[in-house]
User: Fold these one by one.
Assistant:
Number 1:
Amino acid sequence: MIEIANVYWIKILAALVIFSILIIFFLRSGNEKSKISGVKLVEMELGRLGENYKVFNNLIVKLERGMLRIDYVVVSSYGVFVLTRCDRIGKISGHKDNREWKVTSRDGEDTILNPIWENRKHINALEKKIGSQPFIPAVVFSYAKLLDDFGPIAVNVGQLQDFFLRHTRTLVMHDDLELLVDVLNKFKN
């Protein structure tokens, strides 16, 4: 009877050890994504777009009151996509019209300036330099979970391909594409 009880406890202990190892493995594999920078995650997705898209990153636009860095501009016949990357980790809440949004993470609560407004500043700067174009805004979140609806322009990096697939109407003619690419090449960092 005592041997049966010992075998029972040994099996329980072995199951707990295996369960603990699986939990550690699961937690470590879940953190692999966070080891990749937000820049790399977004660039990997943009690299999957294909030859119909020309991707520019880290563009510097000189303004009257300084300079502005734009994370990504993607030019295609479907429009001029202006992407602002947000690499915050945590849960983001707020309203798309609020000046600040709340970020809740393991480290506590913090606030960020509304990245949709930042994206609008980028588009305004580009409009001053290259004129009126069919600009399509997007704010790409590398790691954050969006708790509220910030509209169709706020997407997680995993939704980026779907975002581009929603825009399939030709808005920019071929000659205009070449001119846009030439102008944007002057803003390269």
Note: The helical segments are 2-30, 32-35, 38-47, 115-130, 160-165, 174-185.
Number 2:
Amino acid sequence: MGLLNRRQASALLAASVMASRAVAAGGEGARWLPLSAKRSTPPLRLPDLADQEWSLAQEQGHPLLLNFWASWCEPCRAEMKSLEALEVHFRARRLRVVAVNFKEGREPVQRFREAQALTLAMVRDSYGEAARAWGVRSFPTTFVINPAGRAVLRIEGELDWGSTTVQQRLQTFL
């Protein structure tokens, strides 16, 4: 199957379909799925780009966006700058955005981050175990985590995080 294995090709196809729907709807065609209070939030411990351990538990006390992405996913790449702008916009509310890279090495992720001049926190899900535990089946998928450390919202698909509509809608979950 060339450079992509079947799983990557399927994920890429799913991401492309989601991206076309989002673009057709002005970037706001992503699926917003509130999560049940009864659903447990999986633990998360991953290495960052400096190979230091990052954990979801250390982020308690402020809202967090976990964005599962891959550099081969065009919709993922397209929304990175607006995710960074979102973090700046909600700085007073102490929002933090953490980009969880799916199955790529430290060097390619670092090169992408530098080429895009991003300052977002990035961690690596080298084997895809975190994506599996969180039920991620398409990219990008973003989770909103409340200050208590509970996942309260799942967003599937690309968004323009700088959109006033998206920011207003997101504010109710922060």
Note: The chain has five helices and eight strands.
Number 3:
Amino acid sequence: MRFIIYPFLLLIILNCNSIRVFSDFDRNVDFSNYKNFSFYKSGIDQVLISDLDKNRIINSIKLNLDSLGIKENSNSDILVNFNVDATNQIIINNGLHYNYGYSPYYWGYNYGYNSYYPITSSRIKGELTIDFIDAKTKRLVWQGIGHGFINVYMKDRDKQINNFVKQIIDKYPN
């Protein structure tokens, strides 16, 4: 029975879309004064991701800041910058595996022989950092960082990226 439960639990754990979010901010800043934002274009242009994903992040930041009452405006109080980092993690499971079917070590079919062989899989660990810079002083006043695993084969990338951005901006002190 445990040969059925353990792989199932491992599959559930690996497919969890949990995002860990951290934020830090300048405690001497009154965040209620920030009503307008614009994007720090020269910083965003250096982010090495596709233009499609870059636009998804920008649109999600606009949407989430708008819900906080902070509107995009060329005469801004805050400059918004972001950066992404992704690393591919390879997972190797060198455990005992329960097999069904033909075994070259036995005559005919053997239902349930045990063997040791590695099973490998990979996943992408992504990090999205969003920075809010005071437009007048050019100092970083807030930073939110989200860590999570990215499903590159997900059909609705807009939803996935918006979820990432929303969880980060939810940490904004308003």
Note: The two ends are 51 Å apart (CA to CA).
Number 4:
Amino acid sequence: MFLSIITVNKNSGKSFLKTEKNLISILDEFKEIEWIIIDSKSTDYSGKKIIDLKNNIHKNNLKIIIENDEGIYYAMNKGIYHANSKFILFINSGDSINR
């Protein structure tokens, strides 16, 4: 992997959808990019969407970790730990990458 994109999420509502649509299309195009989602057991729409993604994973370059954590920086460090690339980029729920 060349780049790991890490998204930390907790109850981001439907704003996660914008990020998901954007990054899934990027994963389809660039196989050397991985997306790591760290979710702190969200109880809103974003949590349901992430669970759906996890149950339907067909991509080798998508990792989803759903477990309680001790805050945003703890979750970010967890994402770094699971990254398998030379470079790391943090993208928040609701954000996207322009190509």
Note: The two ends are 19 Å apart (CA to CA).
